[in-house]
Amino acid sequence: MEIDEVWRKIEALAGQQFTQMRGGKFTYSVGGGHVIPDRTNHRIPKSHFREALTRWPVPAQANFRTCVVLPISMRSSLTPA
Prior knowledge:
Layout: H1 3-13, E1 18-19, E2 25-26, E3 28-31, E4 34-37, E5 44-45, H2 46-54, H3 61-67, H4 72-75
Antiparallel strand pairs: 1-2, 3-4, 4-5
């Protein structure tokens, strides 16, 4: 999967509500080449998604977390439907 395809999916899902593993809810917007979650001031650059694709799939979440900052709920965007 290419970054442009993933980014289109991310843009298409912007504004929808996601549920975190512990039950918290969040949405995000996309702007300036970043994903901007509504529950944090942290902006996730498109480059993190690009980097994630070079390492996808990973054998364990722990390994994934050490290389790319990306919420688990957004990782599904990297998995083909």
